[in-house]
Each structure stands twice: as structure tokens, then as C-alpha cells.
Write a structure and sequence with these properties.
Layout (H helix, E strand, L loop, with lengths): L8 H11 L7 H20 L8 H10 L4
Helix pairs in contact: 1-2
Length: 68
């Protein structure tokens, strides 16, 4: 099974868990890992992104900053 054309982090986490069951890492942990890795690449390719390396905090800061 190839998932290289699938941008869904949940599918990647599920595939990882099925492929490496002896790794003993919860699927939700892998979901977070893959989602963060995908967003880091997205930010890199888009030429911007978080300054502090924390995409979740970057999004929170963008939503809570004053307009103008």
C-alpha cells in the first residue's frame, strides 16, 4: 500500500501503526507527529510559517492578535 499521494495525517498514522505494530506507539501520538511534520513542510514550501517552530501556537497567535 502506498500513501505517498495522500495528505491525510490520520491515514499515515494508521498505516504506520499497521506496518510497525511492534513499535508500540499509540496511533494518536503518530497522528500528531505526522500532522506536525506535514505542516512544517507546508510552511517551508509556502515560504513562511511559525517563527518559534510551534505551528499550533502560531495559529493561536494569528487568531488572537489585534486587527490592524
Amino acid at each position: 500500500m502506498s500513501i505517498h499521494s495522500n495528505p491525510d495525517a490520520r491515514a499515515w498514522a494508521r498505516f504506520f501503526a499497521e506496518t510497525y505494530p511492534s513499535c508500540n506507539v499509540r496511533e494518536d501520538v503518530m497522528l500528531g507527529w505526522f500532522a506536525n511534520a506535514m505542516m512544517a513542510m507546508h510552511d517551508h514550501l509556502a515560504g513562511g510559517g511559525p517563527l518559534n517552530g510551534d505551528h499550533a501556537q502560531y495559529l493561536i497567535d494569528q487568531e488572537t492578535r489585534p486587527n490592524g
